[in-house]
Amino acid sequence: MVKSLMRANQRLPMMLNEQTRIDRMTAEADRVIVYHYTKVTYTLPEEGSSALHDAYKLDRPEMIKGLCSDVKVRKILNDNYTIDYRYYDRKGQELFDILFKRADCDA
């Protein structure tokens, strides 16, 4: 898995759209693969990121559909890895993360 992440990271960072950049992918303990994203137009307000997180929770079913239909990602999930989409603001402050597990595809 680590070699695959190293190969993927050679192409990063990469803009995904006008607002989102994927910076890197890392492997963490307990079989967690983290995708580190930056919202390049967003700065964490003093009151936190709850509104932005709520908006992404609404998009979660579409995210699951995309993840589960991707053969490579589905293999990762089937191998009992957790995928963590971790979002940061343009200054590097962590906003929130969204976790995906194999059971999400089975639902």
Largest sheet: 5 strands, mixed
Given the C-alpha coordinates, what overall shape results?
globular
The mean pLDDT is 88
Radius of gyration: 14 Å
Q: What class would the helix/strand composition place it in?
A: alpha+beta
Strand order of the largest sheet: 1-2-3-4-5
Helix content: 25-40%
Number of strands: 5
| Beginning-to-end CA distance, first to last residue | 26 Å
List the secondary-structure elements in sequence, H or E: HEEEHHEEH
Low-confidence stretches: none
Task: Provide a count of the helices.
Answer: 4
Task: Give a verbal description of the structure.
- The structure is a single chain.
- Strand 1 and strand 2 (20-28) form a beta hairpin.
- By secondary structure, the protein is α+β, with helices and mostly antiparallel strands.
- A 5-stranded mixed β-sheet has the order 1-2-3-4-5.
- The radius of gyration is 14 Å and the shape is globular.
- 38% of the residues lie in helices and 32% in strands.
- It contains 4 helices and 5 strands.
- The model has no long low-confidence stretch (mean pLDDT 88).
Task: Give the gist of this structure.
By secondary structure, the chain is α+β, with helices and mostly antiparallel strands.
Task: Kindly list the characteristics that best describe this protein.
single chain, 107 residues, alpha+beta, five-stranded mixed beta sheet, 38% helix, globular
How are the SSEs ordered, and which strands pair?
Blueprint: H1 2-9, E1 14-15, E2 20-28, E3 32-39, H2 50-69, H3 71-78, E4 82-89, E5 94-100, H4 102-106
